[in-house]
C-alpha cells in the first residue's frame, strides 16, 4: 500500500497545502457548524501559534470566513507579510438543529438520534444539517482550485480537513466523518500529476 503513494522522481509535487484546524473556541466542546461562530479562547490562540513554530515557510494563507479560523489567519498573515484570501466554501458543515448544543446534551435528550448520527453519519445527520454530499462537493471544489508556487496554509475546520483526507485517500463519506482531527491539528497534502496525496495527518 505504501508504494502506491510514494513519490516518484519524475512526478514532483506541484502544490503543497497545510491544513490547520482552528484551536479551541470559547465555550468548550459543542457542535459548531457555520451557524455558531465562537471566537478562539486564549488557549486556542496559543495552540495555533505553537503548532506552526518550525512548520516551514508558507507562500500564502487561505481561510474559512468563520472567525475561529479567520481571525488567526489574519494575524498570522499580517505577522509574516503573507497574502490572505478568505474562501467562503471552506466554512464548516452546517449542523442544523444541533448547532450550539453540547454532545452530552443531545445524547441525553435524543439518544436514538445521537447514536444514529455516529453509526451512520450520511443518513443520521441532524434535522436541517447540510447534506454531506453537498459539503464534500463545495470543499473539494475550493481545494481543487488552489494554486501557487509555494506551500499554502489553509486555516479551517475539522470537516474541511476530513474532506481533504478523504479526497486524497478516495475514502467514503461515512469513513471521512470518522477521521479524528484535534484542535490546531496540522495535516499536509500535495497535488501533482497523479492527483492528491496525504503526506501527514494532524502531526502524525
From TrEMBL:
Record-level Gene Ontology MF annotations: phosphatase activity
Gene3D superfamilies in the cross-refs: Phosphoglycerate mutase-like (3.40.50.1240)
InterPro entries: His_Pase_superF_clade-1 (IPR013078), His_PPase_superfam (IPR029033), PGM_Phosphatase (IPR050275)
PANTHER family found in the cross-reference section: BROAD-SPECIFICITY PHOSPHATASE YOR283W-RELATED, HISTIDINE PHOSPHATASE FAMILY PROTEIN-RELATED
Pfam families found in the cross-reference section: His_Phos_1
Name used for this protein in its record: Histidine phosphatase family protein
Species of provenance: Acidihalobacter prosperus
One term under GO cellular component: cytoplasm
Amino acid at each position: 500500500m505504501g508504494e502506491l503513494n510514494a513519490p516518484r522522481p519524475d512526478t514532483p509535487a506541484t502544490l503543497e497545502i497545510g491544513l490547520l484546524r482552528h484551536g479551541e473556541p470559547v465555550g468548550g466542546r459543542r457542535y459548531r457548524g457555520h451557524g455558531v461562530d465562537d471566537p478562539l479562547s486564549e488557549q486556542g490562540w496559543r495552540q495555533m501559534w505553537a503548532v506552526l513554530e518550525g512548520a516551514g515557510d508558507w507562500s500564502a494563507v487561505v481561510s474559512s470566513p468563520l472567525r475561529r479560523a479567520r481571525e488567526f489567519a489574519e494575524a498570522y498573515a499580517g505577522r509574516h507579510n503573507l497574502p490572505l484570501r478568505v474562501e467562503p466554501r471552506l466554512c464548516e458543515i452546517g449542523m442544523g438543529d444541533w448547532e450550539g448544543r453540547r454532545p452530552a446534551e443531545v445524547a441525553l435528550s435524543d439518544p436514538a438520534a445521537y447514536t444514529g448520527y455516529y453509526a451512520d453519519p450520511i443518513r443520521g445527520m441532524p434535522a436541517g444539517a447540510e447534506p454531506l454530499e453537498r459539503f464534500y462537493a463545495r470543499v473539494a471544489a475550493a481545494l481543487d482550485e488552489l494554486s501557487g508556487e509555494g506551500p499554502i496554509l489553509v486555516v479551517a475546520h475539522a470537516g474541511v480537513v476530513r474532506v481533504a483526507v478523504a479526497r486524497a485517500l478516495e475514502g467514503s463519506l461515512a469513513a471521512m466523518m470518522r477521521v479524528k482531527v484535534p484542535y490546531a491539528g496540522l495535516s499536509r497534502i500535495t497535488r501533482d500529476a497523479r492527483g492528491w496525496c496525504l503526506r501527514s495527518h494532524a502531526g502524525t
